[in-house]
Design brief:
TrpB-like_PALP_sf, 1-aminocyclopropane-1-carboxylate deaminase/D-cysteine desulfhydrase-like pyridoxal-dependent ACC family enzyme, globular, ACCD_DCysDesulf, 306 residues, Rossmann fold, disordered C terminus, TrpB-like_PALP, single chain, pyridoxal phosphate
Length: 306
């Protein structure tokens, strides 16, 4: 097993058989306090919040959200007050929060809950204005942390990888599209990018990605594909096959993937390799964007189901 800085060679039979050099970029190891792509998405947003004189961050997310966990941690580390508007019903008095929300609360985040109807309005300016009237002035971060300021931090990853290796393609999991859009701006039309959608019916993400790069770089890019067949039933859905694959990768390479994003990413990349998607002789770098914090809640749900 070869480690070069944050690059890890994945000696996988299917990659070897098809002449593809497959590596994993361990972005989950860059910042232990704020691991993975969430720190990159927050970098310039937090700078903007400071510049605008804000002391509070307000954001949205599900009960197991990596983004919620990251914003809460950023608040603790950098001295921001944080407010999380969580999708779902408020836990009844005396019931336990899941591990993600326990950690967020311990990091100082004030948790409030939105029913499904209210949560669907989370991007509406009038709804956001209502929340600011309720909670006071705050820098508002969208669900998943994806906005125009998220892209530059993700774009910097391209140069970091290039310092270590010359590659033919980058591959990343896609939830909101922000990380892939950032990579595309960093690639600037050179080399190829592959996005593996983590949610069902993910074709709509193509328009989201193109809108983000247009707003940030002034153009859209054609040097990427969006793979929508590896969602395993939808966002946060899973199968025995996916869980077995994640365990296999952990045993073979000592890498813990997560079941929501990176497990689906690497499963998809290896399937694409087997189908001849990447030409023989290619160097492909899959990006581990973190997300391991989700495992505590995931395992809790399994145990609850018996």
């Amino acid at each position: 097993m070869l480690h070069t800085s944050l690059l890890q060679l994945l000696d996988e039979p299917v990659a070897n058989a098809h002449g593809v050099r497959l590596l994993l970029w361990r972005d989950d190891l860059v910042n232990p306090d704020l691991p993975g792509n969430k720190a990159r998405k927050l970098k310039y947003n937090l700078a903007a919040a400071r510049a605008q004189g804000h002391h509070t961050l307000l954001t949205f997310g599900g009960a197991y959200s990596n983004h919620i966990a990251a914003v809460a941690a950023a608040g603790r580390l950098l001295g921001f007050r944080t407010i999380g508007l969580i999708r779902g019903e408020e836990p009844v008095a005396g019931s336990m929060l899941n591990p993600t929300l326990v950690r967020a609360a311990a990091d100082g985040m004030a948790l409030h809950y939105l029913d499904r109807a209210a949560y669907r309005r989370r991007a509406e300016p009038a709804f956001i204005a209502e929340q600011l009237a309720r909670f006071g002035p705050a820098y508002v971060l969208p669900e998943g942390g994806t906005n125009d300021l998220a892209l530059p931090g993700c774009a910097e990853l391209v140069a970091e990888i290039r310092q270590q290796i010359d590659f033919d393609a980058l591959a990343v999991a896609v939830g909101t599209g922000g990380t892939l859009a950032g990579l595309l701006t960093g690639l600037a039309g050179q080399r190829h990018a592959v996005g593996v959608a983590a949610l069902k019916k993910g074709e709509f993400l193509r328009a989201e990605i193109d809108a983000l790069t247009q707003a940030t770089a002034g153009q859209t890019f054609g040097n990427y594909s969006l793979q929508t067949e590896y969602h395993f039933g939808g966002y946060a859905k899973y199968s025995a096959e996916l869980l077995a694959f994640i365990q296999q990768i952990k045993v073979r390479h000592g890498v813990l993937l997560d079941p929501i994003y990176t497990g689906k990413l690497l499963f998809g990349v290896l399937d694409l390799v087997g189908k001849g998607y990447f030409r023989r002789g290619s160097t492909v770098v899959a990006i581990h964007t973190g997300g391991q914090q989700a495992w505590a809640g995931w395992e809790e749900r399994f145990e609850a189901r018996g």
